[in-house]
Amino acid sequence: MKINVETHYLWRDVDHEDEVLESYFTKTRDKSVALRFLKKAMKRYGNPQAIVTDRLRSYSTAIKEIGNVDRQ
Fold first, then answer.
1. Structural domain that includes position 19
2. Strand, helix or coil at 28?
3. End-to-end alpha-carbon separation of the chain, Å?
């Protein structure tokens, strides 16, 4: 998504009923942003039963660091 000619990325947390729990924009899509996003969502909503992503590499490295590899 372009905002003032700069590319920004939308991060969304959606539950099993397709309701958006939280969302925010960032300028990058790297491991540190994915880790911060996952930790924030898990702190607010607890451990998920399953994690579904768009297979971006930064998600898998962040999920490995958190310790939820078996849930992706």
1. 2-71
2. coil
3. 26
